[in-house]
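ok so for the tutorial part 2 we go from a plain amino acid sequence to predicted structure tokens. step 1 is just haveing the sequence, like this:
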Amino acid sequence: MRRRRQSRQRLPQQPLEVEITALSHEGRGVAHLGDETVFIHGALPGERVRFRYLQRRRGIAEGELEEVLQPSPERIAPRCVHFGVCGGCSLQHLPAEQQRRFKEGVLRNQLERIGRVVPDEWLPVLTGPEWGYRRKARLGVKLVPKKGGVLVGFRERSSSFVAALESCEVLDPRVGRRLRDLAALVEGLSVARQLPQIEVAIGDEAVGLVFRHLAPLTAADQAQLAAFGEQHDFLIYVQPGNEDTVQLLWPAAGELSYRLPEFDVELAFRPTDFTQVNAEINRAMVSRAIALLEPQPTDTVLDLFCGLGNFTLALARRAGHVVGVEGEAGLVGRARDNARRNGLENCEFHVANLAGEVRDLPWMRRRYDRILLDPPRSGAAELIPQIAGLGAPRLVYVSCNPATLARDAGMLVHEHGYRLRAAGIMDMFPHTAHVESIAVFER
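step 2 — the prediction. this is what the tokens look like for a chain of 443 residues:
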């Protein structure tokens, strides 16, 4: 039997006026026209706006803001001239304090609606720099002669096209103010049409740029890249294939690393490794997580989704023994190296698929006094029943997705005898709708 296609409704050609009643969890203004809900980029609650339909289907529509007829008193002028075109930020028209209130509201709503839980206490928001904070990014690169040559930047909002950026206000300024220089560099390479991406990775002391190229670099290309690195004091990496092919081109030796001064820990990382984008918030987050866990010198702690040891090594300074588990073997290798680097002998690391069955693995057969987990956006639904069976009296959950945190919190509370003692947000990504949060559970 042939399946009927969902047909898009014909879009009105004339702009319409609406009242904005709320912000969606993605940071778009929400309006209602009859039985239809319209999500409008760039609109704020309390505003009357004129918009044009972008798409429309079964009671849900997306609109493009054309004019703000009655602005919200909270509306401010965006700092970045590319706001509204570039897809990197969605909330620059809202003051930082109101952005944080919005994110707290998202977390509160998700916990109550999805998890049916309310924390005993709301934690103060962790805040840090609002501009120039971003240390990790993947910049798109595209040669577009009609737009003047090579473009380097984030994608346009709701598009696969690379935005024509002169600069970026949220990127670390050592890179954010060099986008046109990067574009000019790529334009002079023989592989300008076969270089789709530049990955930015910044440590405390060094800036790394990874040039992904789909055709071999000539000797002249390599010389130009090296000269650019020398001029701007950047580490230059090249990547002809997958992440395993990344190699340092200039200088002959160099390293990326960051410190957690409170715990006297330094972590080295490869430029394609996962690290937190906001160094100041990361330091505060590690400190808060460990304060919430309250590890004692005799405790054994389990750190799940440990990466290259961001929490594990700091925990090892406070607890008796720490077991870190991660699904990516390369990160586990770097975690072990980082433990040796810091002279830590009371931690161990294991590779395991944490989205699968782990009950019978040797490290799961131990007793743990504390558990910390920092899963990906998909959360830890498969893992929750398994770690709940360990009986640890305290568990800290760090989340980059309030919806999956809420789901997992509901499981811990309603199915496994835990209580949600406290929760709060951490403003890891100012000017975006991304919500980073932390929660602590007790039996």
